[in-house]
Every structure is written in C-alpha cells, then in structure tokens.
Design goal:
Blueprint lengths: L7 H7 L1 H13 L7 H14 L3 E5 L2 H11 L7 E5 L5 H8 L3 E5 L21 E4 L11 H11 L2 E5 L7 E2 L2 E2 L6 E5 L13 E5 L2 H10 L4 E3 L2 E2 L10 H10 L3 H18 L14 E2 L5 E4 L3 H10 L29 H7 L2 E4 L7 H16 L1
Parallel strand pairs: 2-3, 2-4, 4-5, 5-8
Antiparallel strand pairs: 1-9, 6-7, 6-12, 8-9, 10-11, 13-14
Helix pairs in contact: 2-8, 3-8, 4-5, 4-7, 9-12, 10-12
Bound molecules: pyridoxal-5'-phosphate.
Pyridoxal-5'-phosphate binds next to α4 and α5.
C-alpha cells in the first residue's frame, strides 16, 4: 500500500466543484489582484477566529516580518523564538533587522518551554513569538503573563494551528498580533503560497496593510517603503471555498490522531500529548523512535512516507552558527531532533491506512 505524507489530491476531489467554481469565477472576472475575493476571505477568516482584522499577504514568512515591522521592531531589538520550529519564525526576525534569541522547547509538548523564557530576556527584548507547533497551542496564559510583566509584544505564529484552541479560545486571538501560513499542506491550505496576519488593533491592521502593499496610502502616494506581499485573488477564492470545511477536517484529524494513539499504545515510545485545556488540531502527528533513520527506511520500504519536523534544531543550523550555540544550550530540542518522526496525517486517512502504518511501525521497531 502507498501512503503519502499528505494527500491534497483526495481533498481536492472531495470538494472539486467548489474549488473549480471558485477558480473559474476569479478568471471570469479577471480579479487577480486586490479584488473582492480577498476582502471576502479576510472577513470570513477573521470571523472564524472571532477577531477584528485579517490582512492577507503572500505567505506565512512575510506575515511574521510584516507583523514585526508594524510593531516597530527592528535593529537593536531582541525577539524570543522557540528553538524547535520551522526556520521562518526566526528568519523573519532577522529580515526585520532584529536579533533572534532562542528558547528550548518543552520535551513532551514540543512547544516553547515557558519556564525558560525569562532567563533569556534582556533590556533589549521587545517581543515573544510563540509557535503553536504541530497544531498544539503553546502555553498562552503563562506567555501572556510574562509579556505583560516585562512589557513585551506577542506575535503568535499560527502557521500550524488553524482552529486550535487554548482554554476554549482560538489560537491567534491572544497576542498583539498573530500570523498564519496557508501553504498548501497546512490545515487550511491554498493552491500556492499564501498567508495572513490577524489583530484586534485598527492601527496595527492599517500598518500591516500598508507595509504589504508598498507602503501605499493611495494611488501613487506612498507613506513608507513597504514591500509587495499581497494575497492574490485565486488563492483568496480557493481559501474562501475551503474555509467552511475546516472544522470538519479538524475533527477528522483529531479522530485520526486518537485512532493512531490507540493503535500505537502497545509500543513503548512517546506519542503526542496535549494538556486537557488545549484542543490540538494535529497538523502533524509526531512520535519519537529509537534508530529513527532505520525505522524511517523500513516504513519507506512499505510505501509509507514520513517526515521529520525538524531534523536540526534552529540554533544548531549553519544559518545560526554566528550565535555560537551548542547542543547543551538546548537539551530538549537537541535530544528530540534525533528521535522525532512525523507519521502520515491528513483528514482523509482511512482506518485501514492507519492500521497499516501502525503494523509497519510495530514491525520496524521489533527488528
Ligand atoms: C511554524 C511555521 N511558521 C512559519 C511558516 C511560514 O509559512 P510560509 O511557508 O507560508 O512562508 C511555516 C510554514 O511552513 C511554519 O510551519
């Protein structure tokens, strides 16, 4: 049996008429840039989250950089970023001109270790970017308390957490701002690159919109030097067609995660866990295994695609060599990077496919 890591084709086939209709409408109206499709999606996504503003942009990396710039964070400022995340979270801090300061992750939850944030603060620290990694909300109450006490801004990186809730409240609605990626494989994915920024603040929303549209105030009137980072009409229409399905897809992911956890419960390996106050949306289903490369190969031989998120903790990447970090500085991230393994996870996974993965993993670990 062949089991892909994600199956965007089967999702497309399940809503083909809606997607094709959305694409055709954009083409019929030649509504490619700055059309009503963008405003409509922004309004419906903001209402899904229960937040005032959503500003579409070109991708989730730009979204973080634009949010930092809107908050006035740049050269001379430091920003707290988890050691275990996709590089965009840190990269955007650098491209905004600020300095990245890494904090280790919680060894069981994989999100930022909130007990280690305060020791990394300095008089130059301006913001924290918690990431709701793999679909599990970071511990937002504690993070917001730290931020309030030290007068820091919070930008939630929600690239992997569309629809996840913490103590009953949507991720993306805790911080000053939050950013989303709509990369095709995300829980809500476009058919190309796309991203968004959300906030309650009228002022920050206006600033983000300006920065993402060449600093434009009006036609040929530019209030500042921004950039071209707009959500395009086709992606907005596709996202608008997919958004009504997100809640159902999330429930399917949660059911699948539960099924995996039951099928794998006999194995003596760490499975995903979530505190009872968090509603995990399982963008990824991450386990830990010994001899990870050998296990991954065995699964590949059985036709099962897996991933590693992420094989090198950010502070240990060549890109951050300048910071001079060692594995001892980030014990949880360093230990996790050699053992974590992401199993196929998508709403359309069948019981038969999950049983096949569980059997293959059991056999691989037995050898
Ligand atoms: C945690 C995290 N942050 C940011 C991003 C950046 O999103 P994009 O690929 O849309 O630029 C991603 C996407 O992979 C991500 O997983």
């Amino acid at each position: 049996m062949k089991i892909p890591f994600v199956d965007l084709k089967s999702q497309y086939l399940s809503i083909r008429a809606e997607i094709d209709g959305a694409i055709q409408s954009v083409i019929d109206e030649t509504a490619f840039i700055k059309s009503h499709f963008i405003g409509e999606f922004e309004a419906s996504f903001a209402s899904f989250l229960g937040i005032k503003h959503c500003i579409g942009c070109a991708n989730g990396t730009d979204a973080i950089e634009i949010a930092l710039r809107a908050l006035g964070i740049g050269p001379g400022d430091e920003v707290i970023v988890p050691a275990n995340t996709w590089i965009s979270t840190a990269e955007a801090v650098t491209t905004a001109g600020a300095t990245v300061v890494f904090v280790d992750n919680d060894p069981a939850l994989y999100t930022i270790d909130v007990t280690k944030i305060e020791e990394k603060l300095s008089p130059r620290t301006k913001a924290i970017i918690p990431v709701h990694l793999y679909g599990l909300p970071a511990e937002m109450d504690i993070i917001m308390d730290i931020a309030r006490f030290h007068n820091l801004k919070v930008i939630e990186d929600c690239a992997q957490s569309h629809g996840a809730t913490y103590k009953g409240k949507m991720t993306g609605t805790f911080g000053d701002m939050a950013t989303f990626s709509f990369f095709p494989g995300k829980n809500l994915g476009a058919y190309g690159d796309a991203g968004g920024i959300v906030t309650q603040s009228d002022e920050l929303a206006k600033m983000c919109r300006m920065i993402g549209d060449h600093g434009r105030l009006g036609k040929h009137d530019h209030g500042l030097e921004g950039r071209n980072s707009r959500l395009d009409g086709l992606q907005a229409a596709i996202l608008g067609a997919k958004l009504p399905h997100l809640a159902g897809w999330t429930e399917a992911r949660r059911r699948n995660a539960q099924a995996y956890s039951k099928l794998l419960s006999h194995l003596d390996i760490p499975l995903p866990t979530a505190p009872s106050h968090s509603h995990h949306v399982y963008h990824l289903y991450v386990v830990q295994v010994p001899e990870r490369e050998r296990v991954q190969e065995r699964l590949a031989e059985k036709g099962i695609a897996t991933g590693i998120h992420y094989p090198i903790a950010l502070p240990l990447l060549t890109a951050y060599q300048r910071l001079g970090h060692t594995e001892q500085d980030f014990p949880a991230a360093a230990r996790g990077q050699g053992r974590i393994l992401s199993l196929p996870m998508y709403p359309e996974l069948t019981a038969e496919q999950m049983q096949y993965v569980a059997d293959a993993l059991t056999n691989a670990l037995a050898k």
